[in-house]
């Protein structure tokens, strides 16, 4: 699917993922975790990587097979490897710590495999989650 450079697209992705999960027998909890990871990544692409750009391109492909839920998320923003980014949880109590820092930690904790590459002017992140029997 192709996504507009608009955070409202996240709702469409989540709805599509829920339908896909139900049709493929993926447990709701796993669909939810996968959806939360996609929400974080897509929101970051739109808010940071493609902010203010009218030529932003985002694509998402999702598949299920061999006991694995897999997605490839691609964007034409500046090179950014989320796997190399600091994903240490923020330090301090909620009132005094800086905003942010939990999203990539969440994504990394939910996925069984993540792979980033830059190809043909696009960031390409492949995500995999092993699907447990319902």
From TrEMBL:
<dbReference type="InterPro" id="IPR050267">
    <property type="entry name" value="Anti-sigma-factor_SerPK"/>
</dbReference>
<keyword id="KW-0067">ATP-binding</keyword>
<keyword id="KW-0723">Serine/threonine-protein kinase</keyword>
<dbReference type="InterPro" id="IPR003594">
    <property type="entry name" value="HATPase_dom"/>
</dbReference>
<dbReference type="Pfam" id="PF13581">
    <property type="entry name" value="HATPase_c_2"/>
</dbReference>
<keyword id="KW-0418">Kinase</keyword>
<dbReference type="InterPro" id="IPR036890">
    <property type="entry name" value="HATPase_C_sf"/>
</dbReference>
<keyword id="KW-0547">Nucleotide-binding</keyword>
<dbReference type="GO" id="GO:0005524">
    <property type="term" value="F:ATP binding"/>
</dbReference>
<protein>
    <submittedName>
        <fullName>ATP-binding protein</fullName>
    </submittedName>
</protein>
<dbReference type="GO" id="GO:0004674">
    <property type="term" value="F:protein serine/threonine kinase activity"/>
</dbReference>
<keyword id="KW-0808">Transferase</keyword>
<feature type="domain" description="Histidine kinase/HSP90-like ATPase">
    <location>
        <begin position="4"/>
        <end position="128"/>
    </location>
</feature>
């Amino acid at each position: 699917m192709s996504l507009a450079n608009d955070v409202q697209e996240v709702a469409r992705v989540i709805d599509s993922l829920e339908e896909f999960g139900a049709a493929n027998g993926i447990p709701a909890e796993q669909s939810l975790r996968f959806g939360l990871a996609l929400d974080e990544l897509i929101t970051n692409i739109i808010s940071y990587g493609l902010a203010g750009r009218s030529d932003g391109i985002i694509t998402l492909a999702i598949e299920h097979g061999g006991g694995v839920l897999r997605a490839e998320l691609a964007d034409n923003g500046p090179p950014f490897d989320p796997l190399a980014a600091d994903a240490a949880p923020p330090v301090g109590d909620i009132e005094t710590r800086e905003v942010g820092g939990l999203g990539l930690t969440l994504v990394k904790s939910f996925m069984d495999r993540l792979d980033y590459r830059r190809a043909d002017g696009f960031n390409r992140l492949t995500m995999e989650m092993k699907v447990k029997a319902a």
